[in-house]
Amino acid sequence: MPNDHTSSPAPQPRAPAAEDRSASRIGEQRVRVLLPLPLPSMLDYLLPEDFVSPAPGSFVRVPLGQRTLAGIVWDGADDELPAERLKPICEVLPTAALQSELRRFIERVAGYTMAPLGSVLRMAISVPEAFQPPRRRRLCAATPGGVAALADRELGRPLTPVRRRVLEALRGGPPLPATELARLANCGPGVVRDLMAAGLIEERLAPAEPPEMAAPDWRRPGPPLSADQAGAARRLIDQVEAGRFAVSVLDGVTGSGKTET
Fold this sequence. Notes:
Elements: H1 18-26, E1 30-34, E2 43-46, E3 59-64, E4 67-73, E5 91-92, H2 100-113, H3 117-124, E6 136-142, H4 144-150, H5 161-170, H6 178-185, H7 189-197, E7 201-207, H8 227-242
Antiparallel strand pairs: 1-2, 1-4, 3-4, 3-5, 6-7
Helix pairs in contact: 2-3, 5-6
C-alpha cells in the first residue's frame, strides 16, 4: 500500500489557451463603441496592436454575435470587464469622425427623450452606403503595345479597320468605359475584349463619378394655385416684402395644398 511519500507524476505545464495568445497579440488598449442599436449600454472592444488608436468619433467596424456592425468610438472605457472577454475591433473605417458637438447632441436627445443612445445614433447615421467602399468604374486605356500597333510598329500583321478605330478612339484622350469605347468606334463589345486579350488595351479602375444633376432653376413657375392658396401665398409675400419679423401658420388638412403654397 503506498504511503504518504509515494512519488507521483509531476503535473505538466499547460499551454496557454488560444484565446489568451490572441489577446496577447491584440494588446490591452480598450475602445468603447456605440452601436446603432437600442442596447442598454455601450460595448468595449480591444484594439489590435498594429492599429492606430482611433480618436473619439471615429467610425469602426466591430463584431457582434455572428455579424459585424459599424459603430462610433465614444469617450471612455470600462476597465472592470476582463480583457479575455473582449473582442477586437475589425477595422477603423476611412470616414470622417463624428464631431464632438454632434456626439453631445446625440447624448442630449437621448436624455431628453429617454431613449437609448444607440437608437438616436441610428437616426444620425441612417445611410449605410456611407460605410461602403467607394464604387469604382472600369475604364479602358491603350497599352504601350497598343500605341505601337496603331503606328504599325511591333506588330506581326496590320490592324483590322475596326481594331484601328478602337485604338484611335483612345489616342490622346482619357480612358473610357468599354461600352462608350465600343459606341465611339462603332463596333461590338467583343472587339474591345479581343484587344484586351491581345494586350493592346488594359483595364483601369477609377472612382465612380457622381450622377449629374441639373442646377435648380428658381425661375421655373410653380404649380397653379387655387383661390384660397393664392390668398395665403399673397399674405406670405406681403410679410416678406414688409421686411419685418412675423410668424405665420398654414392651417389645412392633408392634401389641401400647403406644400404648393
